[in-house]
């Protein structure tokens, strides 16, 4: 078992004392040289040659060398620096592993709820049997479908795909880009109607310089105008003038458009129609070339979930063109509080809201996706324009 530096130092000191006493017992000069053993260099060991004294004196000199090494033992006190080992407590930093809880960021997957597609896919009924609509008088009378042929096939609801691919088109107004069909046939004579697939198209203006463009049987159309006065181009259903809106069950429309140019002094983009008994001209305005402002006497405000919030107005038209010739009639108007360029429009919910404000429609004559411009020069492309009634 090894000795500690401190115990070796004690033995060395005792031996040194013995040597000193032995040296004193010998002759004086020899004892003095033996005192060299006290030096840290251990030179005192050489004093052992003073053996002229007794044998005990000589042996004491040898042990004196041990005293020298004993002094080195004092350096052993530096071992106390070992207490620095307490720094090992720094290991508690391992608790930093708690940061692993950051994995909760995976909840971002809820973005998948955007899939509202297909909601407009309802097929139309067999049509209203093609009742002959009112031919109207001259001038603006052409605004109310001249042929009544719109009911012959029922709407296919293909418009349901509009904007739905993003899942947000109904509320934010953002729409997926869609291509305008190629080709097309221009219809530029005022007060004219025809068919595009299961939908009826109608063009009317108080002047000249406007055209409606159809694309085969696709539920889409374009319109252009250039200082054409009051210009209306629309595609949708002729409803026959023999049923009230609630007798159809559900009436709705799907649309998507891009526009350019100007709409003159006033404009409306949305859905449009007439009722008879009583005679009413009605609008649901989703967008405009002129901003969405007031339009007559405000009757109230309502919201359709997933579609938007609308202000409702009513105003009178006195001695104006209509589907029954020159007449006086009210206009019922829903104006969306923020414009959008595509989406689904639940027309039946608009009609219900109007009824709640004391605005009663008669028997439905038509419901069509519309652009109306009060002059100016512009163009609009509806990549989707479809009305359904079922």
N-end to C-end Cα span: 106 Å
Question: Which CATH architecture of the largest domain would you pick?
Answer: Sandwich
* Average pLDDT score: 68
Structural class: alpha+beta
CATH class (first level) name of the largest domain:
Mainly Beta
Largest sheet: 9 strands, mixed
Number of helices: 5
Identify the CATH homologous superfamily of the largest domain. Glycoside hydrolase family 11/12, catalytic domain
Looking at CATH, which topology of the largest domain would you report? Jelly Rolls
Strand order of the main beta sheet, please? Answer: 2-3-6-14-8-9-12-11-10
Low-confidence stretches are: 1-142, 144-173
What number of structural domains do the residues give? 2
What does this structure look like?
The strands form two sheets. A nine-stranded mixed β-sheet has the order 2-3-6-14-8-9-12-11-10, with helices on one face. 15% of the residues lie in helices and 32% in strands. It has 390 residues and is α+β, with helices and mostly antiparallel strands. Helix 1 (5-25) packs antiparallel against helix 2 and helix 1 (5-25) runs antiparallel to helix 3.
């Amino acid at each position: 078992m090894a000795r500690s530096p401190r115990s070796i130092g004690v033995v060395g000191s005792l031996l040194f004392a013995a040597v000193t006493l032995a040296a004193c017992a010998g002759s004086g000069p020899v004892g003095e040289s033996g005192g060299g053993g006290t030096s840290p260099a251990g030179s005192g060991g050489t004093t052992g040659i003073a053996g002229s004294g007794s044998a005990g004196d000589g042996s004491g000199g040898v042990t004196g060398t041990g005293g020298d090494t004993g002094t080195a033992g004092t350096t052993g006190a530096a071992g106390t620096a070992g207490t620095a080992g307490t720094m090992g407590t720094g290991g508690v930093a391992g608790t930093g592993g708690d940061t692993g809880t950051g994995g909760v960021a995976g909840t971002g997957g809820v973005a998948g709820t955007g899939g509202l597609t297909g909601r407009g896919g309802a097929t139309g009924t067999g049509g209203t049997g093609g009742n002959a609509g009112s031919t109207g008088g001259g001038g603006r009378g052409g605004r109310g479908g001249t042929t009544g042929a719109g009911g012959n096939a029922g709407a296919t609801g293909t418009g349901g795909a509009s904007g739905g691919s993003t899942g947000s088109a109904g509320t934010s107004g953002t729409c997926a880009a869609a291509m305008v069909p190629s080709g097309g046939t221009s219809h530029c004579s005022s007060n004219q109607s025809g068919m595009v697939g299961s939908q009826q198209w109608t063009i009317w203006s108080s002047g000249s310089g406007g055209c409606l463009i159809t694309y085969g049987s696709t539920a889409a159309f374009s319109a252009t105008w250039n200082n054409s006065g009051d210009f209306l181009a629309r595609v949708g259903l002729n409803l026959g003038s023999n049923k009230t809106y609630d007798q159809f069950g559900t009436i709705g429309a799907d649309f998507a458009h891009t526009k350019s140019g100007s709409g003159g002094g006033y404009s409306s983009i949305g859905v449009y129609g007439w009722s008879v008994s009583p005679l009413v001209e009605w609008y649901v305005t989703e967008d405009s070339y002129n901003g969405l402002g007031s339009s007559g006497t405000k009757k109230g405000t309502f919201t359709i979930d997933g579609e938007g919030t609308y202000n409702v107005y009513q105003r009178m038209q006195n001695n104006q063109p209509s589907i029954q010739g020159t007449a006086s009639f009210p206009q019922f108007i829903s104006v969306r509080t923020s414009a959008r360029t595509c989406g689904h429009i639940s027309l039946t919910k608009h009609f219900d809201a109007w009824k709640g404000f004391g605005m009663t429609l008669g028997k439905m004559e038509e419901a069509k996706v519309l652009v109306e411009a009060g002059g100016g020069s512009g163009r609009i492309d509806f990549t989707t324009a479809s009305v359904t009634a079922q």
